[in-house]
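Need fresh eyes. Consider my entry:
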Amino acid sequence: MKIGLIGYGTIGCGVAELLLEKRRHSDLQLVKIADIDVERQRDFMPEKNLFTRNATEILNDPEIDTVIELMGGIEPARSYILSAFANGKDVVTANKALLSSCWKEIMEKANLHKRRIRFEASVGGGIPLLSAISSGLSANKIEAVYGIINGTTNYILTRMEKTRESFPNALAEAQKKGYAEADPSFDIDGIDSSHKLAILSSLCFGKTSVVSSIYTEGIRRITHFDISCAAELGYSIKLLGISRMDKDRMIIRVHPTMLKKESLLSSVSDVYNAVYIKPDLTGPLLFFGRGAGRYPTASAVYADLLALKNNEEFYIPQVEVVEPVDISEVISKYYIRVQAEDKPGVLAMITGVLAEHNVSIASCIQKERGKTVPIIMITHEAKEGAIASSLSKIDKNPFIKEESLKIRIEEV
């Protein structure tokens, strides 16, 4: 197998190092690397004659039969992959943004040109997750997927829980360690998780939703106070991707979630990822490991190359793009934090509004005394729409000093 690599960032360095120095299979030959910047020194630098600034040298080389795309983004990555198929080359990619946005086109073009595509590294870093779903669980009907699939946000929430740091300080530490980008929006606003969840849903259910239709909420508003309250109540807070089928309707969403401390997902800390799947024959399965990083992700790319070399089966279903159930229809228990003036009648007003919308309170705590105080409530199961309408009305009261927060509670 003669291989061309497009994109020489952190993961590209790891892949090149595995293929050129640490390889166990000498018949996987990296023969060309394309990157815009071929001069900048990286942690691993092969011989200069391997590099080119022009990706078409790889795409048009008749000797190269497999292309690794690690540049990320939609364009020109999409065009390069389609060109690789048209030129008779198989593709390995880690590009979750591209796959979640252009799945149908990419799979149709691969089939048209009788080419193969593998993308294990697009979800879960080094965890052998997608191949397990496609092959190992092929006899199963998967009922639901719950995933901690972004290591940056999990690291931030872990630091806030363990060291009592504020969100800004925990984010700054994640950036210092290289876990978060200078602009961390893609991670902390849940966008990265929604891309990965769309891919997981495609393989698990043969159905998915366009990313813009997936309800996505990040962790910016989570405070250490919320994490402390959750712990006191027996919960931890995780950014969770949830996808499941309700008869023929898809419920798919990404948001902060409170999980019981006994939950296996609750114990997943730092930059680790975990995906909890409920197949009907095997029973629940948990996949756990490093979700990002040079070597874990490079390991997944290498495994894909070897799978192509050995002609291993990787079943990619025909995927139907569906409109998900609107978030207002989702039923859950909720943690609610209301910041209110400490005056008589305020609590009665809050509970009265919730009652108007048929929201039942399981417990209520006022944590402290002062000019303004946080009022914490746990509800029984209620529709999201009822909770949202209640909080909208509550927040208009002059005694409420900031936008109220809700966190969904899941039993996983």
Observations:
- Residues 130-290+316-321 form a domain with the Dihydrodipicolinate Reductase; domain 2 fold (CATH 3.30.360.10).
- Residues 96-112 form the longest helix (17 residues).
